[in-house]
Specification:
Number of strands: 0
Strand content: under 5%
Number of helices: 5
Shape: globular
Largest sheet: none
Helix content: over 70%
């Protein structure tokens, strides 16, 4: 079962090419700077930033990726990282 940190880390790793600030957040995660509450707050900040994005294609991809992550969090079921990562790859590869 993936941890919250692993889900968000995978998410940020996948979206860093679309959303540059994801790289900085990844550094914070890798060095264990953030606790679980801060991870939730980080995700909230990310969602609010995405909603104000000006590039419609990037915005749509990021919104779909957010929904995929939220669905996994809400279901609280076991999921392998590869499955989650491949789902994000599909979403982000859409044109």
């Amino acid at each position: 079962m993936m941890t919250k940190k692993e889900y968000i880390s995978t998410f940020l790793e996948k979206v860093k090419e679309i959303w540059e600030p994801a790289r900085g957040f990844l550094v914070l995660l890798r060095y264990n700077v953030l606790n679980d509450q801060q991870l939730e707050e980080l995700f909230g900040v990310f969602k609010s930033v995405v909603s104000s994005a000006s590039d419609d294609l990037k915005k749509r991809k990021l919104e779909k990726a957010i929904v995929a992550l939220e669905n996994l969090k809400n279901q609280e079921q076991e999921a392998e990282m590869l499955t989650f990562a491949s789902e994000l790859d599909q979403i982000l590869a859409e044109h």
